[in-house]
Design a protein that fits this description.
heterotrimer; A alpha/beta (253); B mainly alpha (370); C mainly alpha (296); A: alpha/beta; B: 370 residues; mainly alpha
């Protein structure tokens, strides 16, 4: 349906862990400058899908293309060099390193020393709390601060595409609002976003489009507005989306 | 309720027997070969076969602990040593004992016991030692436990080498009576196999295996796993001490070096080669290792391989064994038998032989236990 | 015990402890990034020893032999990773431990077959045997050199681990290997680097070890790996400061028992120290400075 080439395209991707299939025959597209939400219940396979894109899990079937070139089968350290940054669930900050060192590691793929320092400064203005805690061990930060650090760390690699896994997990509403406000502005910085989120209304607030995943498969997709009105998302979260009447919105599949 | 219980227990026994019987057949076959070839109980082959049967007890004992819990133990050779030394204390003739064990108390000095009392007392002492040590180490994490059992080995070696009055230090012990015959060795090997298989299929054994597969669930069920571990630890140590007693009453002289690094490595290799997860693996590993050692010992000592002259190489047998172990770990990390007991492999082979036979369920041995 | 005796023993603790700390650090670094307790680590010490032995008996000056000993240990460490451990990436703790144990036995027998099964003497510079009198204290040059070298190595390693991107990457990988890869840290490179530094540390510790003992033998690696293993576990396996602390605690325990035990029980000082260590683990099952985060 799109005329221009999508930034990320998954075509019939199946992946999982050993004999367990966590993602089955998933096809989706994320276009440059979009925020796309990936919704679904716990254990639906959303995190595995993100990890497959990032290279942590190898797909057993299907293609993954970034800006037209295949990235499936590459190592995670190669995929991040092509401009894909995954902020993992549970944030995955390095708690034994200082905030500054976490940011420095985030830029591990880059060689432009001077620019890295400027970017780190910028992160500290974007998230002032990180500037204050620069010399502190990241493990001493609060949950919200850790999430900000994780986002800042991902941004340090100057990604084209950010994969975010549950950025609101376990955070106070005030902090979540703050973080989502920042996420909304990511496309302005030239960053495209694929967002996995349990909190549907939050996700659809900032996303233009979305996909719904249930029992390892992408069940439906549409614009944020379509998804909001057409689907009784409750059902999806109870894991019965497959039985739900097919909604009107099927764009992008 | 009672009927149900009986059903469970009979199923349990059925799967135990299905796994144990082929192994017992192998062991008895070894015994028959030995008895026929050397009816007088002498000669190198006889010695080899008896030592193999005793080795089976040692490896099966370690399998009971490491195979089920997934925790390495370097310490089991120390328990074999405890069995051997305790046997010496109670069986060496008094005249010699006064000379080599001056530290023994009077009542032990006079003891010149036979096979059975020696086995009993050795097993008891081994179990007691393991019970005390186990209190400390069974609640540790896997890594700390591995280190502590290594520490245990070093401590035991230090004691055997330095406790002059009771162990004669590095000079070693001699003059034990010959009580172990091929029949006795075979009997205990069969018993060890049966007990290990029963433990594997028992509730405690299954719980321990579950903790090995998934350390997270092991932590959530904390207390019961520590208890299961403790039970396996004491039982397998007692069995090791029993094997040590059998071994001492066959080999008659020994020193602290016999229960150290090289032995630990040999036992662990046997387990790795055959496969940690199964009792059959322990037996197969012991068999293969014994053969390798026997063939290569010729090369090492006489420069002779199947009658062909080859250069003498010091430590060759051990080096080849280590190489095989490493290759097995890389290319077949679960050992030769992996998850199947011997009976499973027999069924598999039979089905392959009768082509068109039904496709085999993954584990015939385990299936019976459900 | 007089103050000067206490001072004397403190110096012994410092000197023994810094050797143990270096050994433990090398073991802990590799464990951190790969989950492997490298049992063949002790053989790196042996390789250093044999390199020095073979070079010095052929008239190579001591200093050059030391440099070559450390270099060979480092190369051997890297080779171990490539040949034995790379095929076992992601294997379980138990498999890795067995594999390194097997590798250790292979190497011991290679030494036995190629050099000699017997213990060989090795002579260091005469200075190391002499002592220095400072007030009431008699301090051997060996102790001074050990303490200075140990301290220098610790400081350099700390600077590297905290200041350089490679060092920070290695610490990051030790905490969470997958996330480190997501940051673009190359798995092969960071593991190889850990083995290189581990080999360097084993080499430096090996020089100190061999200079102190004055001999080399095929199975001599067992004691260093044992001490390193104990030290890392007491300190909390995976924690680098823990490894250093563990090394000094172990040295203190050993020297304490040597000092307090009567002569008749003296041979049991090592078993006593080990029992003390096991007792520490009973109360702190995760070690003194257990790392907070779990490996993923």
């Amino acid at each position: 349906m799109s005329e221009e080439r999508p930034l990320l395209r998954l075509d019939g991707v199946t992946s999982g862990y050993g004999p367990i299939v966590a993602v089955r025959d998933a096809s989706l597209e994320v276009r440059s400058g979009e925020i796309v939400a990936l919704l679904g219940a716990n254990g639906a396979g959303k995190s595995t899908l993100l990890m497959t894109v990032a290279g942590l899990v190898r797909p057993t079937a299907g293609n993954i293309e970034l800006d037209g070139s295949r990235i499936d089968g590459l190592k995670p350290e190669e995929i991040v060099r092509r401009g894909v940054a995954l902020t993992p669930e549970g944030r995955g900050i390095f708690s034994h390193l200082t905030v500054a060192d976490n940011l420095r590691i985030g830029a591990a793929v880059r060689k432009d020393r001077a620019q890295i320092a400027t970017d780190a400064e910028e992160m500290c203005t974007l998230f002032p709390i990180l500037g204050e805690r620069r010399r502190q061990l990241a493990g001493t930060l609060s949950g919200g601060e850790q999430q900000m650090l994780a986002l800042a760390r991902s941004l340090m690699s100057r990604p084209r595409l950010m994969l975010l896994d549950e950025p609101s997990l376990g955070l106070a509403p005030r902090i979540v609002a703050q973080i989502f406000e920042m996420l909304r502005k990511l496309p302005e910085r030239g960053v495209t976003v694929l967002l996995v989120e349990q909190n549907v209304s939050l996700a659809l607030d900032i996303a233009q489009r979305g996909y719904v995943m249930a029992s390892s498969e992408l069940q439906l997709s549409g614009t944020a507005a379509e998804l909001r009105s057409a689907v009784d998302l409750e059902q999806v979260y109870l894991g019965s989306a497959g039985d739900a009447p097919e909604p009107a919105a099927t764009g992008g599949r | 309720m009672a009927v149900f219980a009986r059903l469970i227990s009979s199923r349990f026994m059925r799967s135990v027997l299905r796994t144990a019987v082929p192994l017992v057949v192998v062991l008895v076959a070894v015994m028959v070969v030995g008895a026929v070839m050397a009816p007088d109980g002498r000669g190198a082959t006889y010695r080899l076969l008896v030592n193999f049967l005793i080795t089976v007890v040692i490896v099966v004992a370690l399998q009971m602990f490491t195979g089920n819990s997934g925790i390495v133990s370097w310490g089991h050779a120390a328990f074999v040593g405890i069995g051997a030394y305790s046997t010496a204390w109670f069986s060496v003739p008094m005249v010699i004992k006064e000379d080599i064990f001056p530290g023994l108390p009077a009542w032990m000095m006079g003891a010149e016991w036979g096979l059975v009392p020696c086995l009993l007392v050795s097993t008891a002492i081994g179990a007691l030692a393991a019970a005390v040590v186990g209190l400390a180490i069974c609640r540790m994490k896997e890594t700390a436990m591995a280190m502590s059992t290594l520490g245990l080995l070093v401590i035991a070696h230090g004691i055997y080498s330095n406790w002059e009055g009771w162990t004669r230090g590095t000079e070693g012990v001699y003059a034990l009576p010959t009580n172990t015959t091929i029949y006795i060795a075979c009997g205990f090997a069969c018993l060890a196999v049966l007990l290990a298989v029963m433990f594997k299929y028992s509730r405690v054994g299954l719980r321990l295996q579950a903790s090995r597969e998934d350390p997270l669930s092991a932590e959530s069920t904390g207390v019961s796993v520590v208890r299961a571990r403790y039970f396996a630890w004491v039982a397998s140590a007692a069995m090791s001490a029993l094997a040590g007693s059998l071994w001492a009453q066959f080999n008659l002289a020994f020193g602290p070096a016999q229960f150290y690094y090289a032995q630990v490595f040999a036992i662990l290799s046997m387990l790795v080669i055959g496969g940690l997860a199964t009792v059959s693996g322990a037996l197969v590993g012991a068999g293969i290792t014994t053969v390798i050692f026997e063939v290569l010992r010729g090369v090492e000592n006489e420069g002779n391989l199947f009658g062909i002259e080859v250069p003498q190489i010091s430590g060759l047998a051990q080096m080849i064994l280590a190489l095989i172990t490493l290759l097995i770990l890389i290319f077949r990390p679960n050992g030769l038998l992996a998850w199947w007991e011997l009976d499973g492999w027999i069924v598999k082979a039979r089905d392959r032989f009768w082509k068109g036979g039904r496709k085999l369920a993954p584990d015939a041995g385990e299936k019976g236990g459900e | 015990m007089s103050a000067s005796e206490i001072g004397q023993q403190l110096i012994n603790v410092l000197s023994l402890g810094s050797t143990y700390a270096l050994l433990a650090l090398g073991l802990a670094l590799v464990f951190g990034v790969m989950g492997l307790v490298n049992f063949a680590y002790g053989e790196l010490v042996t390789i250093t020893g044999y390199t020095m032995y073979l070079m010095t008996i052929n008239g190579v000056p001591w200093g050059l032999a030391v440099v070559c000993g450390i270099t060979f240990a480092t190369i051997a460490s890297l080779l171990m990773e490539r040949l034995a451990f790379r095929p076992l990436r992601n294997a379980s703790f138990l498999t890795l431990l067995f594999a390194s144990f097997a590798l250790s036995v292979i190497l011991q027998n290679v030494f036995r077959a190629t050099v000699s099964p017997r213990t060989k003497g090795i002579r260091g510079p005469g200075l190391l045997i002499e002592s220095l009198q400072i007030g009431p204290l008699t301090i051997s040059w060996m102790s001074i050199v050990t303490i200075v070298v140990g301290a220098a190595a610790l400081i350099l390693l700390t600077l590297f681990m905290r200041g350089s991107l490679a060092g920070i990457s290695m610490r990051a990988a030790a905490e969470n290997f997958s996330v480190a890869r997501l940051m673009g840290i190359k798995a092969n490179r960071v593991i190889a680097l850990a083995f290189v530094i581990s080999g360097l540390l084993a080499g430096v510790a090996g020089v100190l070890w061999v200079s102190r003992s004055g001999s080399v033998s095929p199975a001599m690696g067992f004691v260093p790996i044992l001490k390193a293993f104990i030290a890392t576990v007491i300190g909390g396996l995976g924690s680098l400061p823990g490894a250093v602390l563990g090394g000094f605690v172990l040295a203190a325990a050993e020297i304490f028992f040597i000092v307090v035990l009567p002569t008749s029980v003296q041979p049991f000082s090592d078993p006593f120290a080990l029992l003390l260590v096991i007792a520490i683990l009973y109360f702190k099952p995760n070690g003194l400075l257990a790392p907070v985060a779990e490996r993923v």
